[in-house]
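Hey,
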Amino acid sequence: MDLTEEYVETGNTLCSWLGLENRVKLSQGNALAMNLPDATVDKAFMLHVGMNIPDKASLAMEVWRVLRPGGVFGIYDIMEVGGDQLKYPVPWATVAKASSLASPANYKHSLMAAGFQIVSEQDRREFALDFFERLKANSALADGPPPLGLHILMGKEAPTKVQNMIENVSRNRVAPIELIARKA
């Protein structure tokens, strides 16, 4: 589910190309008010979305509502891990007031208050730093950006956003955090 119809259309096209159209259903909508019946989803995941959703408690309650008992919710988001201010722009926000970052503790509190049990938590900072090193190495060898990539979504500020993200992760201001929760 995504707010942006074009992302959903693109995702459905990619699923079709990969033969996944009967296994993956993408739809346009709001994660805080999903147009899904109660207890009808087996598994849900959120990938780099929470940084744009201020109300983590409502998000957790809505995901809990649509998951079946025993359902699993995976989150992979950039989260606050240090106390320093971020350097902007970043991939999801050009200024601080457009960002809705939260700490892993905030996410876990919201999930548990909704009725989830936390199954696991992993700080993926080192993975991100390795990714950025590979990205820099590949960029240095290339004749410009690839035809498809995140730079298309981020626009002309993509190099600055990526550089700031590298700095923010390197200085331990933020990190990608993986949380797995189960509906009790």
